[in-house]
Automatic annotation (TrEMBL):
<dbReference type="InterPro" id="IPR003591">
    <property type="entry name" value="Leu-rich_rpt_typical-subtyp"/>
</dbReference>
<dbReference type="Pfam" id="PF13855">
    <property type="entry name" value="LRR_8"/>
</dbReference>
<dbReference type="InterPro" id="IPR050333">
    <property type="entry name" value="SLRP"/>
</dbReference>
<feature type="region of interest" description="Disordered">
    <location>
        <begin position="591"/>
        <end position="650"/>
    </location>
</feature>
<dbReference type="InterPro" id="IPR032675">
    <property type="entry name" value="LRR_dom_sf"/>
</dbReference>
<keyword id="KW-0433">Leucine-rich repeat</keyword>
<feature type="signal peptide">
    <location>
        <begin position="1"/>
        <end position="23"/>
    </location>
</feature>
<keyword id="KW-0732">Signal</keyword>
<protein>
    <recommendedName>
        <fullName>LRRCT domain-containing protein</fullName>
    </recommendedName>
</protein>
<feature type="compositionally biased region" description="Basic and acidic residues">
    <location>
        <begin position="640"/>
        <end position="650"/>
    </location>
</feature>
<feature type="compositionally biased region" description="Basic and acidic residues">
    <location>
        <begin position="597"/>
        <end position="617"/>
    </location>
</feature>
<keyword id="KW-0677">Repeat</keyword>
<dbReference type="InterPro" id="IPR001611">
    <property type="entry name" value="Leu-rich_rpt"/>
</dbReference>
Amino acid sequence: MRDILVILISFLLTIVTCGPTTGEDSCPRQCRSCKSNIVECGKQSLAAPPKVYPQGTKTINLEGNHILVIAEKTFDYLDSVEVLKIGGNRVVALRNDAFSMFPNLATLDLVDNKISKVSKRAFKDLVKLRTLSLNRNKIESLDGFLQYVTNLFQLDVANNRITTIGPDDLKSLEHVHYLDFRDNLISRIDSQAFKNLHNLRYLFLNSNPLVTTPRFEFGSQVLELVDVSHCDLKTVPGPFPSSVTDLRLGNNRIIQVNHTDFLNITDLQLLTLNDNDLHFLQDGSLTHLVKLQELWLRGNKLVYIPRSIPDSVRKVHMDSNNIQQIEAGLFSNQSHLDYLTVENNQIRQIQPNTFSGLRFLNMLNFQENQLQTLEKNTFVDLVSLNTILLSNNPLKKIEAGAFKNMGNLTNLFLCYIGEENFELEGNFLTEMPKLQKLQLINSPGLADDLMAVINDSAVFQAPLQKMTQLDLSYNNLKWVSPRVRSVFPNLLSLPLDGNPLRCTKSLKWLKDWMVSSVVSFYNVNEIVCETPLRLKNRPIRGIADNEWADENEVETNDAVKDNLKETTTVLGNKDGGSEFIDALQQDAAVLKTKPVKQRDGRQSGTTKPKDVKEQPKSKGKGRKEKKPEKKSKGGKKGRDKTNKDKAKVQ
């Protein structure tokens, strides 16, 4: 019986010992884990990779170690591996047959190493390799090392030191779809370099010192994207297959576009020629591009928008050129244009009806031009227009009828318009029933005129229900009409930062609104009083009901203050000057008891008729009274006045 037990125990121990091993049991001790057929050996400070891995391993991660060289005997044979990651190491060379132990390898990642030498047979036997990433290395030449990866789908050799693409360097890559050569030192490409690449779809040659290119012979008729931007090209490269839909030529030194440059690219949808030295595009150079949808010409030296832009184009980028005007009739009634930006040009005038009939137009950007007047019929019947940007122009006048039937306009920007004697004819806001955002930041004259329009119930009758944001910050507003609440009943934001507000009783309504609503009244700083002096820099929302000033308090004190300041400047250092100032100070005390005319024409102390509303007078349908010009301190009139004052003192 005892012998039988010994035999049985020995048999059980044999089964346990000889049973199948798990991945964890055979995981290299230098690695972190071996789970789900993935061996994780990254960031372990390895000078050399482990040779043996568990059976069935599909992915080996060796990223972020200190591996220097990969040679024939670096790894043992393992036909299950499909993904090998060796990025972020210190590999300087790939020896012959370096990866021959992985016959089923599909993805090889060698990104961010120091590889300068790749032996010709380094990738031998990798017939199933689909993705090869050699980005951010020091490779100077392809030198035939791609001849064995005939089924490669994607090749990334960006950020290396390659100088030339020869006629046979890519010859074996008949199945490649994606080639990335960006950020190399390529100055020469052979005309037949891409001839054998029948399946090429994406080609990146950008950021290379290419000055000229040969007449390419492309074998692919399915090429979709070609990027040759950020080079030193002086002429348009090509020819390209008709299948190209995306051609990027920005940031070169191209001077002109000839009418034959894009002749055969009939499927082109995106063309970028931004940031070149373009002086002109020959007439007809774009006409045949009937599928073109987006055109980039920003940052050139063009003086006009190219004629005969195809009706299919939806977006045109013309910022930072030397455009003087936009010709009437430039866009046909069949145009699908929905986005036009001509920011930072020299446009002085938009001719009436220039955009008439553009039923798809959604956004117009005219910022930073030289527009002085928006004439009648400038923007008419643009039923789809959503946004207009007109900031940073020397605008002086908006004529009545400049905006008509703008039924879907929601955003209007008129900021940084410095003209103080602005002339606003009528009320353009009534033509924009769906307006939601109006920005008038740092546009003092226009803001004053608009406030007068808002305050005139005869001019502004119907409220704008959709308006939620009205930005009047950094203007010269001393008063805000209480009609703002009724004209824009759904406001959520009314920034008034940087305005010299007079805290008189006529402004108390604003404080009441501030403390009883969710409306935001500033972007940066709390709204404060500028005058009278006793309330200066006090937050409006904190002023008590009995602290609000009368109109005569502000106007009289301000007048005396200004008079004293001027006289002190002129006579402060003259004989008798102090006596004259004392006299003025005595006059100031008398002035406080004298009636002062208020905004409605009455004198302080008189009874207000019941039918007269206590509000500022309108300036007449938005037209602002012309302000008197300031006299120069050194002018003749100033000198005459000073002499007379001095005579009185003496």
